[in-house]
Hints:
This protein is of the alpha/beta class. Helices cover 36% and strands 20% of the residues.
Amino acid sequence: MEIPYIPEYAPFTGDQKAWLSGFLAGLHSRTVMPGTAAATTTVEKSAGAAVHILFGSQTGNAESVAEDAAAAARAHGLQPLVAGLDTVDMNTLSAMRRILVVTSTYGEGEMPDNAQLFWDALEAASAPRLEGLYFGVLALGDTSYDGYCQSGKNIDARFEALGGTRVVDRTDCDVDYEDAAAEWITRAVGAVAVVDGDNDAASTALAPAPAKVKSQWTRKNPYPATVLANRLLSGADSAKEVRHFTFALGADGLDYEAGDGLGIRPINDPVLVDGIIGQLGVTGETSVTTKDGSSVPLDQVLTGDYEISIPSRDLIEDIARRSGDAELNHILDTEDREALDAWLWGKDVLDLLQLDPTVKLTPDELLGLLRPLQHRVYSISSSPLAHEGTVHLTVASVRYRSAERDRGGVCSTYLADRVGEGDRVGVFISKNNSFRLPADDGAPVVMIGPGTGIAPFRAFLHERRARNASGQNWLFFGDQHRASDFIYEDELSGLTRDGVLTHLDLAFSRDQTEKVYVQTRMRERGKELFDWLESGAHVYVCGDATRMAKDVDDALHEVVATHGGLSSDAAEDYVNDLKRTKRYLRDVY
């Protein structure tokens, strides 16, 4: 499963950490109270004071920046308490004094799953006043999506409306966010450190955050993993191309858990690179200037450094201005996002450059309008207990044709077409602590994952078998046709035969006149599904967020209401309680 990139945060590099530590050390001599002009409180006075670092994250990366902020606070003599937003109720919030919030924005301006219940309570009329709270917010987002950094904006504004004191301005981070995030952490930790007093009644409710050892392998420094397998899973008649990849981890500290994702550093399609260079009227050896002032060949940076399949907003606006294209300018002027999405469908950077042949950009001008090439994250489909020394992915190759050119997903076709056995690929682990099997091996588990959404559940099932877990396992899986799209059929049959997989409910939508989906099967098995919930089952969902995940959520609410004899409001409360107790978790994109 390819998860479209919604930026959060990568760990600091060694140079950034050294710079940050030095900068923070210098703050010990400062005496300015945040929000006032003439305060005399020293940093030393607040040494050991609690600072709550709360994160909202869909995939786990915002938790990483929260941990980096905790490291900075700890180095500054503060006591960091790191927690997900969903662990904080309003009574606890009102007792806090210092808060730093790090949150990504999910989808088109939505709260991450582990922040939604917190936000629902925070925006309610019953939310408490927060006059004693000093806070700062770091928002992580992507300007190519509607509702850019909206989650962070909402929390920041609501804290202020409830009487909280903002001690550091909110920073909204786009794709190229590292420097801005590092600078915000420096300012934010320094600001909360000089908040006078330590009357934080909530600090006893949470344990101090232990320092965590981070992997040396990050998206900036990926591990060169050797490809052991690249094999086709889908059948010859399938409308999809689904592949299984196996990578060797080696002995260099690239550790993962079932539920994590694997970040891949892609390489752009050389055909598209050549097309862009030709449109610019130059050669691949043309020298361009990078951000650090060095000169490198144009084909090199277009191949590995910039997004060229997804036009940036800056490029779109620049081409609209230069070309005077009436349709594009009208769409931009009216700010009609749906119309812009429709206009952009299937278009890449080359299409934009070809919109008006009279428009000529220099290579450096073009690079100034492009966004950095981002990694792609895929749900890991293996268990380290069952697949020692390797990590597996289940990836659907994205392919389509538009304007007389064949197109493809940046990373999925890179893996499918240009990576073979023995080749090396830059990878890193994307931790997802919010998507884990229950610690109790006796707990029942329900997994709902059509298509490549089965990836983490293949990992879960192998993990449960390796742990000799006694809890029952139930998988809802489906796709278009059983004959060509039943990936991992032999494995699932074996797991069923061995008693690891208790129930396997299949939904192949196009094998009959009336379409059948996983949510259809959930409703059909509603009574037993509710009985599992009553017995403590944990529910997991993986796949498309736009349709499938919402339909599954609706079906779950319906099952609870129907078979629990509850009103719609009571069913909502029931499902929300599953979320609060981490018994309803989603890995959706």
